[in-house]
Design goal:
Radius of gyration: 31 Å
InterPro entries: Big_2, FxLYD_dom, Invasin/intimin_cell_adhesion
Domain BIG2: 43-97
Protein name: BIG2 domain-containing protein
CATH architecture of the largest domain: Sandwich
Distance between the termini: 105 Å
CATH superfamily of the largest domain: Immunoglobulins
Oligomer: single chain
Helix content: 10-25%
Largest sheet: 4 strands, mixed
Number of domains: 2
Number of strands: 15
Number of helices: 3
């Protein structure tokens, strides 16, 4: 029998021991490609009943991304990545990307949920007009009662020491449930120079 005969070589291949064949199966020639999924925001800070859609990037772009919460009592997530804050605490949302024969890729988003404040500071900003330093902002009544005499206190600090205090009332000074109001501080330059940081405090009565 001619050892160089192709037919003979094929016959010999069929007679390979099983252990050699098994070894070959354990070492595939090509590594699987992996879906790359990356959440744009790694952490969400929400209040109860807030909603936020998780933004992400995925490669290949046609890959399917699914979402799962490990604590639905704190935060739930829908198929489109919309997160709803349910209760105070922490939850982890896992994003999983899948595509054909690719190996699945994952990423996570931490969701920190806190209880909604009765009177909430929605926003504020500060500016200087050459003579006065202004702090203006907006607050909201999250209770089911009318909030009366809604007052905003400003305390100016140097390190941990209070160096300046001021207060103002919201406009309007009474806020119905769900209503928002505005506030404004106008501080002289000489007073503004007394502190290098400040905190705002909210007070109200029903």
């Amino acid at each position: 029998m001619n050892p160089d005969d192709p037919q003979n070589a094929l016959s010999n291949a069929k007679d390979l021991p099983n252990e050699i064949v098994n070894d070959i199966k354990q070492y595939p020639c090509d590594d699987l490609e992996v879906v790359e999924v990356k959440a744009i925001t790694e952490k969400l800070d929400l209040e109860v009943d807030d909603t936020k859609v998780i933004e992400y990037e995925v490669e290949p772009v046609k890959a399917t991304v699914t979402f799962e919460s490990n604590n639905t009592g704190v935060a739930t997530v829908e198929d489109d990545g919309k997160v709803t804050a349910k209760g105070e605490g922490l939850a982890t949302i896992t994003l999983t990307g899948s595509y054909g024969n690719y190996e699945e890729g994952t990423d996570t988003v931490i969701v920190n949920v806190r209880e909604r404040e009765d009177i909430e500071l929605l926003s504020y900003h500060e500016y200087w007009d050459g003579n006065y330093w202004y702090v203006v902002g907006e607050i909201k009544n999250n209770t089911d009662k009318t909030a009366k005499f809604v007052r905003v206190d400003l305390r100016g600090y140097v390190n941990d020491s209070i160096k300046y205090t001021d207060f103002t009332y919201s406009s309007p000074s009474e806020l119905a449930p769900g209503e928002t109001g505005a506030f404004k501080f106008m501080i002289r330059e000489s007073n503004a120079q007394k502190f290098d940081s400040f905190l705002l405090f909210l007070y109200w009565s029903d």
